[in-house]
Amino acid sequence: MNDNQSKNIIALLKSTNPDKRFVGNWSGTDHGKFFKGETNSWTVNRRLDGTFSVTFKTIHQDDTVTFLEDKGYWGVNNQDYYEFRESDEQADHYTFLFLSKDSIHFIINEKLQEEEPYNFIDFRMLLD
Q: What pTM value is reported for the model?
């Protein structure tokens, strides 16, 4: 992706109205759904200005553990959630459902495949 495409995505995300229900610190795991044999977990801080930071922890098949930090922009349009991480070439697009005020079920929006679509639940981190 070139700089112009990245700027267009960021401008689109910044133009969406912030959904305050998403703001705050959240955590989740994919329980090995994204890459077989790998478990990814994360903590994400979504801010009202449409920016976020995320830390990923990956436990690999050989039991090694790696960490990755990233940041980017997020936005909501109707039942669609978009997230653009600076390390990616395109925005991720999910549909979502609030299971409660403290848990959100995300399902990736991509063409149907034989497997269940990539999905996960983010849980609000209640800080003391």
A: 0.84
